[in-house]
Write a structure and sequence with these properties.
It is a single chain. By secondary structure, the chain is of the alpha/beta class. It has two domains: 124 residues, Immunoglobulin-like; 359 residues, Alpha-Beta Barrel (TIM Barrel), CATH 3.20.20.80. The protein is built from ten helices and 26 strands. The strands form five sheets. The protein has a nine-stranded mixed beta barrel with strand order 3-18-20-21-26-23-24-25-22. An eight-stranded parallel barrel has the order 4-7-10-11-12-13-14-15, surrounded by five helices. Helix 6 links the parallel strand 11 and strand 12. Helix 7 runs parallel beside helix 8, helix 8 runs parallel beside helix 9 and helix 9 packs parallel to helix 10. It starts with a strand and ends with a strand. The structure holds alpha-L-arabinofuranose. The site of alpha-L-arabinofuranose has 10 residues, from loops.
Length: 523
């Protein structure tokens, strides 16, 4: 057994709360493993932007059609075409922002196809995702009204790959103009009087790949050109997002920052987690511990990626004006057997809950620059919050993690160090326990504790500087198997249950089950 110890609080705080494991061999231990957490209330970082809890909804598979939109005539209970069960679940989740319409879809999307009477909208082919027909029933009005209905900000991704700057400019005017322009009046005739608030606008998507196969230099130049024409009325806030790097393409970030930083408010990166290789990712369920550990290891890589992209951005923008948006992340497995090819429909298990929690904890450690993230995707696609099957719906373990983590939205992160045994499987060593601590606006302290080890519970002894805790309670998510998941027949197989710590002197002690995610409030 190997111990890991995090470096000193000061060093951790200096590196924006980075976790660095320094392995030290120790004697073999019996369960449960002893883990120590120290929270330093005087070492804070910029608040956790609530938009770190953002979602992504693309015209892909059953993400929009069936997942969100069933149409007014559907037998599935709906409000003006949006399914009621999904609306209620998303409202309950307090989704801060939704990115739409893609993804790869964005760079083939012609916005005019999706306005006006639905029966007259053109039918296109969704060439990226399954080659199925796209009815365009869900368009600009349907998306922006949906965002309002669930109380989320709109993040619209424009077409830089195959559209023109004029189309992009006119779309923006259609959505946001308060004038008597022809476009604003067309919007009014189509049923929306007041302009919508479109706070975030993405200039293209994955320009290095499905968005146009561009070199970074060309992408930077195109960004400069297209964004020039993306305008909102004076005084209306708008965040322009440049499409950025894939995974560890640091050159892409460097070139974009060097050549176009003055023309952007945020730069994106995309990173997906899969257990195997891109060609053979591995199944979403029915996997063994080797895939558990490789998935979590790959999820933890997010910290390195964010750290290195940030370092490049820091060189060009030491004031940290330009945000880093991780506007696509999450797990990507082999599709469920029998599902439509290209629909990216996958089950969601306790493993996904761990990936979600670890990723959110990482974003909490980089709030100096990471001000939005959008998990891919919201319903029925990749690491979804929600799965639907005709009239049935289930909430996934990932949904439950996002729900449990709500107190972190807008809270101030506190430095936390962890020491204890490492989790080892084969030649892979990971920290056994990962922690995030933050204080919300009312002054209440919240802790998120993740036990990555699927075999050993942890006894987590926690001290919080300057605080004598009286109690700590919240919820924990765990299950008997690595792939514990909900099904349409058994939708409550895995859901959070009550969890609390006990006070021992001025410390809190948590009996954290193996393979679990817990969030507690400290009083
Ligand atoms: O989320 C699925 C796809 O992954 C998106 O369309 C694309 O941007 C990324 O490659």
């Amino acid at each position: 057994m190997i111990h890991f110890k995090l470096r000193s609080a000061a060093a951790a705080a200096a590196s924006a709360f980075a976790l660095v494991a320094a392995p030290v061999p120790v004697q073999a231990q019996t369960s449960p493993m002893a883990v120590t957490v120290n929270v330093q209330t005087d070492k804070t970082a910029p608040v956790i932007d609530k938009n770190i809890y953002g979602q992504f909804a693309e015209h892909l598979g059953r993400g929009i059609y069936e997942g969100v939109w069933v149409g007014e005539k559907s037998r599935i209970p709906n409000t003006r075409g949006y399914r009621n069960d999904v609306l209620a679940a998303l409202r309950e989740l307090k989704v801060p922002v939704v990115r739409w319409p893609g993804g790869c879809f964005a760079d083939e999307y012609a916005w005019r196809d999706g306005i006006g009477p639905r029966s007259q909208r053109p039918v296109r082919v969704n060439t990226h995702w399954g080659g199925v027909t796209e009815s365009n029933e869900f368009g600009t009005h349907e998306f922006l009204n949906f965002a309002e209905m669930i109380g989320a900000e709109a993040y619209v991704a424009g077409n830089m790959g195959s559209g023109s700057p004029r189309e992009m400019a006119e779309w923006m005017e259609y959505m946001t103009a308060d004038s008597q322009s022809t476009l604003a009046n067309e919007r009014r005739r189509n049923g929306r009087d007041k302009p919508w608030k479109v706070k975030f606008f993405g200039v293209g998507n994955e320009s290095w790949g499905c968005g146009g196969n561009m070199r970074a230099e060309y992408s930077a130049d195109l960004h400069r050109r297209y964004q020039t024409f993306v305008k909102v009325p004076r005084g209306v806030p708008l965040v322009k997002v440049a499409t950025g790097a894939n995974v560890d393409d640091y050159n892409f970030t460097n070139v974009l920052m060097e050549r176009a930083r003055g023309q952007m408010d945020a730069l994106s990166i995309h990173y997906y987690t899969f257990p195997g290789s891109w060609e053979s990712k591995g199944p979403a369920t029915g996997f063994a511990e080797d895939k558990w550990v490789s998935t979590l290891k790959n999820a933890l890589r997010m910290d390195e990626l964010v750290t290195r992209h940030k370092a490049i951005m820091d060189r060009h923008d030491p004031q940290k004006r330009v945000s880093l948006f991780v506007d696509e992340w999450g797990t990507w497995y082999d599709q469920e057997p029998g599902s439509v090819p290209g629909f990216l429909y996958q089950q969601n298990t306790l493993r996904d809950a761990h990936v979600a929690a670890l990723s959110l904890n990482i974003f909490h450690r980089h709030t100096d620059r990471v001000r939005m993230s959008n998990i891919a995707q919201m319903v029925n696609v990749l690491q979804a919050m929600i799965l639907t099957d005709k009239e049935r719906m289930l909430l996934t373990p990932t949904y439950h993690v996002f729900h449990m983590y709500q107190p972190f939205q807008g809270a101030t992160p506190l430095a936390a160090t962890v020491s204890g045994p490492q989790y080892r499987h084969g030649e892979t060593f990971l920290p056994s326990v990962d922690v995030s601590a933050a204080r919300d606006a009312s002054g209440r302290l919240h802790l998120a504790l993740v036990n990555l080890d699927p075999n050993r519970p942890a006894q987590v002894t926690t001290s919080i500087s300057g605080v004598t805790p009286r109690a700590a309670s919240g919820r924990v998510l765990t299950g008997p198997a690595l792939d514990t998941h909900n099904t349409f027949d058994r939708p409550n197989t895995i859901q959070p249950v009550a969890f609390s710590g006990r006070v021992e002197g001025d410390r809190l002690v948590f009996d954290l089950p193996a393979k679990s995610v817990a969030v507690v409030a400290v009083d």
